[in-house]
Amino acid sequence: FPTASRADNDTNDKSMFERASVVTSLPARWKLNPSYMHTFGITENYFIIIEQPLAVGMITLMNCKIKNKPLCSALKWYEKENTLIHVLSRATGALERTFTAAPFFYLHIINQYESEKRDHIVIDICCYRNAKMLDCMYVDAMRNMHKNPDYSKLFRARPLRFVLPMTDKINHVESNWRDNIFERRASARRQSDGTVFVEPELICNLGCETPRYNSRYLGRQYRYFYAISSDVDVENPGTIIKVDTLKKTSLTWSEPGLYPSEPIFVAHPQSQAEDHGIILSAAIYGEGRESDVCLLILDAKSMKEMTRVTFHTPGSVPKCLHGWFTLETPWKNHTSPLFVIIFVSIK
Description:
By secondary structure, the chain is mainly beta. It folds into 2 domains: 1-203, no CATH class; 209-347, no CATH class. It is 5% helix and 39% strand. The protein is built from 3 helices and 24 strands. It has a 7-stranded mixed beta sheet, with no helix packed on it. Strands 18, 19, 20, 21 and 22 form a 5-stranded antiparallel beta sheet that branches. It has a 4-stranded antiparallel beta sheet with strand order 7-8-9-13, with no helix packed on it. The longest helix has 10 residues, at 58-67.
């Protein structure tokens, strides 16, 4: 993994992506149909690769390229195949363990960490029952969503917690480290063929997507994450959610006619608590205000609005999905402090 920024005396003109190197690899279970992967997990000692039963047909993909057809037609959902969760060593790159789970579709992993005794890995994922959610993103599907009674159900993701035992002494194990506070009801059991099947726990009964948290807790035991609602049938679908994974509770913020993007956590410079900071979210307006956009600033602890900055643009602004906050400046020889907020939009 290359560093994101270069030192002043670094004469290497290659970008961080050009300087990247392969640290490990894993053969696909279907050689000509590798699993679609949007992200992977990382802890202090492990990489976590999730092989969901949504595959990319390589032959179909080549035909799509040749015939100039949509690449999405190369995606195939194997509804009778389990999800595989692979754990690989960061030190050696070797495959340590593979777990099986019921089939689910996912785009984003929330976070992952190792237990204090290193005998479990906890991984939290925004899960869908299947990949039909992708069909809901076609323009025709969105225009006619009011005619489809199942539309909202297909779009309904839920945050689930899986506990992966990293010990061979397992027959039927309920997660119970630290008095079962953090992983209540998540379980793992060894099957007759020797594989370990893991069943998740529901973290909260709200649709959560584009999850973010205090980045100091990446790959570490954490308590809070923030997300935007994926429930399109609620009163205010443009809802920002804060989830307490310990108490299994949540706080929300919403405003009618306002549609926020991924909530970005920025820690207070002198923060002591995990949720001491602010939430940044770029939001667009609906209902006749398509040329207005704003940057929301919420208190990350209480989820109350602190302020917002509103802009009027010459034309309508597409909704953005992802964003990033950095104190680093991308311009050379820039000596004053600079706040840079980057948002990625989709048209």
